[in-house]
């Protein structure tokens, strides 16, 4: 298997782990309305958000590698420490009055 194939395979696994993490995190949030869950999930797992950390496939591959080497809890901790703070900040900024995204 060449490097690109290996990266895509790890990303396939990482994408699934990220999806599980996002769903579990969303379910624990009391400020996310039932009707808003899908939108928040998409925002947390989309390539646009992942590109904040580098090439999205590589970000997912990194998650997959942590999962395969250290398990689900370690992968969740990895995302909690690295991805979640940025996601929360972006989410807060998007909700502020006068945000540029709302003016478009």
Would you write up a description of this structure?
This protein is mainly α. The chain has seven helices and no strands. The N and C termini lie far apart (45 Å).
Could you provide a short overview of the structure?
This protein is an all-alpha fold and 104 residues long. The protein has helices spanning 3-28, 37-45, 47-50, 56-70, 72-82, 84-95, 100-103.
Mind sketching the topology for me?
Blueprint: H1 3-28, H2 37-45, H3 47-50, H4 56-70, H5 72-82, H6 84-95, H7 100-103
Radius of gyration: 15 Å
Mean pLDDT: 92
- Spell out the helices and strands N to C: HHHHHHH
Which residues sit in consecutive blocks of at least 5 with pLDDT less than 50? Answer: none
Shape from CA axes? globular
Structural class: mainly alpha
Distance between the termini: 45 Å
Q: Count the E strands.
A: 0
Number of helices: 7
